[in-house]
# Entry
Amino acid sequence: MKKKTLFILLAAILIFDESVLAQKPLYAFPLGVQTYTFRRSIGNDPAKTLDTIKSMGFTEVEGGGGRIAPEDFKKLCDDRGISIPSTGADYNQLVKTPDSVVMRAKALGSKYVMCAWIPHQDGVLTIDDAKKAVEDFNKAGKYLKDNGLTLCYHAHGYEFQPYQDGTLLDYIIKNTNPDYVSFEMDIFWIQFGGGDPVALLKKYGDRWKLMHLKDMRKGIKKDLTVGTSQENDVAFGTGQVDIPAILKEAKKIGIKHYFIEDESSNIIEQLPISIAYLQSLTE
# Structure
């Protein structure tokens, strides 16, 4: 009887060990960060800031170096083993001078160009604003594609104004040409505007190409204003965003570039916690 019990115990230990070894990390991508996270320092001393970024384990950034020329910023990144797969562009620049957007993105070595704002009045996006954005994004997106780049629109939550049987974000996604326009999901702003990140990933699949990873303080009021305090960005795992569920769906649809963005004033304390949280997740 004792031998049988010991055998069962040993078998259970072996099974447990195998299950632990079989666990795969949920986040198995390059560690990326949005340079806006370091906006207080990167414009003044990009080299020193990139040293900090490297020391934290980041190997990708999205954005640029502020006033420094894109070629010079790329060299600083190259010297530190950091790539710049995505950069940003202003809406009006995309509309009026898309050639300058292409030149800057290529100088940085980026493949994606992210636009994070649609002009609108009094904090309310209208259907007319959305229709103009669709037209402008399709035109700019084609120009970028012809030059080897992919345009991604980054929603900020105000696009969840109701429209027909959905929202204005639905209208924008459905009416932009998939060949020319893709999207970047900021999981904080999607949820702040009333959207469900997992449901939207499932609904629109590979239209999503990039992701901003961030967590939201529990209990805050949500609306369509983009008007919450930057201090409501909290360390991963301490807020209300279901990051594991989002990452699981994002992996299914093939998103490969993820950028942590922390807009708070506590990034030196919070970023290591967020990174450790990401690295602790398993499938």
Q: What stands out?
A: The CA atoms of residues 191 and 197 lie 7 Å apart. Residues 4-20 have pLDDT under 50 and may be disordered. The radius of gyration is 21 Å.
